[in-house]
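hey so u asked for the seq, here:
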Amino acid sequence: MGQMIMSIAILAFGVLIFANSFGFPQLQNGALPDAGVWPRAIAILLIVFAALALLSDIREFQAKKNAGAAAEKHSDGYDPNGRKRMIGTVIILGLYCIPGLRYLGFVADTLIGIPVLMVWLGERKWLRIVLVAVIMTAICVAAFCKFMLIPLPRGMGIFRNFSLLFY
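ran it, structure tokens below
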């Protein structure tokens, strides 16, 4: 039930972002995308994924309801390692974002951070880990540096020189 409420809240937030994105200034010539294009794109993604999550939650809720109370007695949903995993994930992401990006730069930090997080979350296939890290780093660098012209952190020292190879 809590997941359905969260999905509804995210859906409403996406609708709010979409509606407010039309208040941004628009260009007169219309040749380039205006300031509201990026927020509208994010809002549409939020709306679509929140709606899909809500539909999935509703189907799961109905399946549990039809299964009866016997299934709920054996599975209460408590995961004893869940809290430790959540705290560890927050620590890994904190180390990734705060000192990692500043000193290592985006490329080096992402190539290190994604595999560490994937292993922490239970992925054990090394080929998949390496491919996801390399492909996601390349997609992010291309999207932000090449297409949207948003600079990413370059890092310090040798890591800055490494970042200069890519952007």
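The helical segments are 2-20, 37-67, 69-74, 82-120, 126-147, 158-164. The longest helix spans residues 82-120.
lmk if thats what u needed
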